[in-house]
Amino acid sequence: MLQHLAHFAFIITFFFSYSSGCRRNDQAISDGNILQVPLSSEISTLDPARSYDTISGSVVYQAYEQLYEYHYLKRPYVLIPLLAESMPEIDKSGLRYTIKIKKNVQYHDDPSFKGAPRFVKAQDFVTQIKRLAFIPTHSNGWWLFENKIKGLDTFVKDAGNDLNKFKTLPIPGLQTPDDHTLIIELREPFPQLMYVLAMSFVSPIPMESVEYYNNILDDVMIGTGPFQMEKWNKLGNLKMQRFSAYHGSAYPSQGDRYSNENKLLQDAGKKLPFLDGINFHIMKESQTRWLNFRAKKIDFLVIPKDNYDSAIEPSGQLNRELVNEKIELEIAPTKTYWWLSFNYNDPILGKNLNLRKAIAHAIDIDRYIKVFTNNIGQRANSIYPPGIPGYNPSSQLPYEYNVEKAKQFLKQSGYPDGKGLPSITYDVRDNSATNRQQAEFIKGELEKIGINVDVVLNTFPGFLNKARTGKLQFWQDGWAMDYPDAENSLQLLISKNHPPGPNSTYYSNKEFDDLFEKVKSMSDGPEKFAIMVRMENIIHRDLPWVMQYYARNYILYHRRLKNYRYSDLVSNYMKYLRLSDQ
To answer: 336-552 in CATH: which number?
Structure first.
C-alpha cells in the first residue's frame, strides 16, 4: 500500500490514540456506532494523487475507491473487483487491458456537482491518471506510470503547467469507448499494473471537480467510498460519516483458515459498511494513547514499547488483567521495514563511501531494536522484506556493529576520530517523544567514534516536504510494501524515481537501473531471483541504506470491535469493522 508512511518511501507505523480531554470517560467508547481511530501524526493531504504516507492513507482509503481491492480475508493476497465489474481482459501481448466499470456508482456530494448527483464514468479514471502525470499536481504516484502508458509521457511535456491543455490533450494509451469501458494500452508489459489499479492513486476524479478546485484537492474528498468527510480540523480531528448513497459492496463470504478459526465470517454477505462513522484524532505521545485505550476511549492500538511488559506475559500471552477487561490481542507480521538513509547528493555523506561504512558499523542495531521495539522488531538481513518471493532468510548484510571497524573506516574516510568532519544533520520524522529518543540514540552511537550529530525536529508533513525537495542529509526511512513484489522495493532506488518520486536518497547507479528494467517485467522464478541478488549486492557495495529491522505489531482491541484483521495491504479495511455491545 502506502510509503511513504510515505509520500514514497516514507511510512509511519500506526499508533492509535485519543485525547483524554476530548470527551467524558463515560461517553467515549459507547458514543454510538462511531469508530475511534486516533493517528500518531498530522494528515499531510487528502488528495489521492498525493497521499502516500500511512497517516493520510488511513483516511483516504475510507472515502476513495479504486478499480480493484485486496480480498479482506484471503492470504496469500488476492485482488478482486471494486469499481470494476470484473477482472480485466488482457490481450496475449500483455499490453492491452480492457476494464468494464460498474454502473450507478455515485460520488459523495460536492459543490463541483452543482447540486446534482454525479456517477462514475470511465473518463474519470483517465482524468485521475492525467493528474498523476500533470506537473502542477506534484503527485507521489507518477513514478508508477512513467514510461508505462502509450502517450502519457508525451502528455507530460505537452501539457506542461497549462490546465486547459491538461483538459483537452488526448492520451493514445487511455481510451473510453463508452462511459463504462476503460482501455489501457501499455508501452511494454507491466505485470504489476493490477496492483497499481488497487492503489489510491487511481481513484476516479471528475473533470468538473478538477476545474472547480483548480486541481488543488488536498483539503477535500470527492470519493465514492462507504464514508464521506463530515468535518476536518487540521490540528485536531477529522470526522467521517456513512455515505447514504454508497453503492453497497458486501462482506466476504469466503476466507482462509485463519478467518474461519477466528470467526471472521459471521457477517458473510451482509451489506457494508456497518459503522455510522469514523473519528480520527491526532495524538502523538504513546503513553497518552495507552492511558486512553485503558480508559476505553479508543477502539484499538499497537502496544507502545513502554507498555509491552505490562501487557504481555513472558509466555507471549496477554496478561490476565487485560483479558478480564475484554481486550483481545492480535500478533501481526507486517510488510513494513526500516533503515537509515543517506542523501547521495550531499557533498559529505553522499560522496564518501568509507564515511557511510563508518556509520553503518557504529550503530548497535540489536540494542536499537531492543530499546525501541521491545525486541518485537526482527533484525533486517536484506533490502527485501520477508513474505515477498525471492526473499532469502539466510542473506547477510555486509556490516555489523563493530566500533573498532567503524573507527578504521572513519580514518579511511579522511576524518580520523572525526577531526575535520562537519556535524551531520539527522532529521527526525516527527516531534514525538519516541522519535526524539530514537534520534538521540543514533547521535550517541556516532559520538562514540567522533562524529557529531545535530538533531533536527520536524512535523511529519514538514519531514515529508524535506524529503520531496532533497533537503535531508541523514534520516530514518521506511517502507510499507504497496504490493507483494520485489519491484516495489527496488523502485525506491532507481534514478528515474528521484524526488518527488520515492527515491529520496537520490541514489543513482546505471547497472542497477539496467537490471531493474529487466526484473520489473519478469515473473517470479529462479531467473528473477538471481537478478534480485545481483541488485542487492550493488546496494550493499554502494551503501545508500543501513538496514534496521522488519516490523511486527502487537495490536490490542476491545472486544466490542468485530471483524478486525490487521493487514499492511488492505487499506480500506474499516468498512468491514463492526461495533457491538458485547
So the answer is: 3.10.105.10
